[in-house]
Specification:
Length: 406
């Protein structure tokens, strides 16, 4: 549609045309239908022995802090693989404990967690290398969002491969957070910020570099936050690429704050742990902001100025549509999405969500020096927003036209 072209046209060398509006349809869903499945896991009756911290390949288990991890299918792994896994878990744990402190890394009670190695089921992010499955629990809505009736606890660690920085990321969820945090910008934003602080090479530089472009950075300067429950009810951000970019944006913002306050997360999770020990079961977004304010004087001013931590729908985008060619990196970024408000009524609950404006196939036309258009199919796309690698021969001197067609 022509009225959608204005923002894109401003971009040098890129003309964007976004057509065929189509909105995601939301059907009524019961709150808390699914968080993460965990039923049917039988745990051995063995009590963890926190003081021993034994790791033995023969016993197929490792104790880290007050968590006992055991292999669910020990016969499927070689002895060498088990040793590599336990050593890597141990290194990741020690590194995290050095960064966050012992208190932040201790659960209110000792727990046993099975490890499933080799496959990850029911993951919406196809690239995920690991996942922590939490217990399924009932919750109720409150004015502030959601409150859990019982504390969630980790009941399964799934790993696709043995990658230390990824295990450290999962350990942030498993140890330091360990229960429900109703804000993805805290929950995942912290996990990624810690991961790339402790393992700088784990950073996705292509995506991180994208935010060095001012207009792309600004494109994400508005409410992107939601919580896991919204996501499972088709709210939040459903586009895999857009979600990934939101994670990078949050990581960048948190790391800027950590540069000013290097002990912030250590103090934050020590306080969170103290509150869990006192019986707090879940943490609403305002609980989390409260902890931030309690452990840092600089937090309040910094946080309120970062638009990307606001909830979806809470702040206006500076630009809804953007097509941007980053010539020296050979990348094309296309984004088009819109925020929708939360609706409640009749016992049904529709979470707020960020929907793509355009659903279709992204095509790129390149006008060569001779004026003849050549069409390139963009392969790295997810219907809504796209990040495409442009072939070398087209990067310089060509005029681009971007179309989303059905
Ligand atoms: Zn995560």
């Amino acid at each position: 549609m022509l009225d959608r072209m204005s923002d894109c046209e401003k971009q040098e060398g890129v003309r964007g045309e976004i057509s065929r509006r189509k909105f995601l349809s939301i059907t009524g869903l019961t709150l808390f239908s699914v968080l993460t499945a965990c039923k049917g896991i039988k745990e051995p009756d063995l009590e963890p022995q926190p003081s021993k911290a034994v790791e033995t390949v023969e016993k197929n288990e490792i104790i880290l802090g007050n968590v006992r991890f055991f292999l669910k299918n020990p016969s499927s792994m070689s002895k060498e693989k088990k040793a590599e896994l336990f050593e890597t878990m141990s290194r990741a744990y020690n590194k995290l404990e050095g960064y966050l402190g012992k208190e932040a890394m201790t659960h209110p009670e000792s727990i046993s967690v099975p490890i499933e190695y080799g496959a990850i089921s029911e993951v919406w992010d196809g690239d995920a290398l690991g996942r922590v499955v939490m217990s399924e629990e009932e919750g109720r809505t409150t004015e502030d969002g959601i409150e859990l009736l019982e504390r969630l606890r980790p009941v399964k660690l799934q790993l696709k491969s043995i990658v230390e920085d990824n295990i450290a990321h999962e350990f942030v969820h498993l140890f330091a957070q360990g229960t429900a945090l109703f804000s993805e910008s805290f929950f995942e934003g912290h996990a990624y910020a810690i991961q790339s602080t402790l393992y700088p090479s784990s950073r996705d530089e292509t995506l991180a570099n994208l935010f060095a472009e001012d207009d792309i950075n600004e494109f994400f300067d508005y409410g992107l936050d939601f919580n896991q429950y919204d996501f499972s009810l088709k709210g939040g951000i459903q586009s895999p690429l857009l979600r990934r970019l939101a994670l990078v944006k949050w990581e960048i913002e948190w790391k800027e704050f950590l540069n000013m306050e290097p002990d912030f997360l250590r103090n934050f999770y020590t306080e969170l742990s103290r509150q869990k020990n006192e019986g707090k079961k879940s943490f609403s977004k305002s609980d989390l902001i409260g902890i931030g304010n309690g452990v840092s004087n600089a937090f309040a001013d910094w946080y309120k100025n970062a638009e990307c931590f606001k909830d979806i729908g809470e702040s206006e985008p500076k630009s809804r549509y953007l097509a941007r060619l980053i010539k020296d990196k050979g990348l094309l970024f296309v984004g088009a999405f819109d925020a929708h408000p939360k609706v409640t009524g009749g016992g049904q609950y529709t979470p707020q969500f960020l929907s793509p404006i355009a659903v279709g196939k992204l095509k790129m036309r390149v006008l060569g020096d001779d004026g003849a258009p050549q069409e390139l199919i963009v392969t790295n796309w997810d219907n809504y927003s796209a990040l495409a690698k442009i072939p070398e021969e087209f990067v310089n001197g060509s005029e681009f036209q971007v179309q989303i067609v059905e």
